[in-house]
Specification:
Elements: E1 9-13, E2 16-21, H1 28-31, E3 38-43, E4 51-54, H2 73-85, E5 97-100, H3 103-110, E6 117-120, E7 123-126
Parallel strand pairs: 4-5
Antiparallel strand pairs: 1-2, 2-3, 3-4, 6-7
Length: 158
């Protein structure tokens, strides 16, 4: 069964077109970081065998705030090349090919150390960062101090 076009992205690796995607909805195990972040790739034209790549981190939407990475085209291309070198025959019908990436391999595929992110309420904090690194949080309101709520001074107190 071919991957749906909606939600997938195209990538060209060594002259061949592939389609790839990270599942939009996590499984129960992925939500709780029991299963790693995975993505699937297959040939864009005449898909036959799927490549399932397992990465050494959690999904960005995991409930426990475990570290994660953004799946970017450079990583996808590197994983496709590695799978082809290990024997994945993307044009031959058959069972899917599983590729499990380790921490060391991740560094090799990205050409440097990965930039891990830690999910936190309103966005992602770079590993080793702090609250000032949140891109979307502009201010955190305190309920303890009068005059720090939305609108009028003392709006948190009734």
């Amino acid at each position: 069964m071919a991957m749906p076009k909606k939600g997938s992205r195209l990538i060209t690796v060594d002259g061949a077109a592939f389609r790839w995607r990270v599942s939009h909805r996590p499984t129960y195990s992925e939500d709780r970081s029991w299963s790693p972040l995975t993505f699937v790739a297959e040939r864009a034209e005449e898909p036959a065998s799927a490549l399932v790549v397992s990465l050494p981190c959690a999904r960005p939407d995991n409930w426990l705030g475990k570290r994660t990475i953004a799946v970017r085209p450079v990583l996808v291309a590197g994983c496709i090349r590695r799978a082809l070198a290990q024997g994945w025959q993307s044009s031959r019908r058959g069972p899917g090919f599983t590729l499990t990436i380790t921490e060391d391999e991740l560094t090799d595929l990205l050409g440097g150390p990965p930039e891990y992110l830690i999910p936190f309420l309103w966005g992602m904090i770079p590993e080793g960062g702090d609250i000032r690194d949140l891109p979307r949080a502009t201010q955190i309101w305190s309920r303890d101090k009068p005059g720090t709520g939305h609108g009028e001074p003392g709006s948190w107190t009734r």
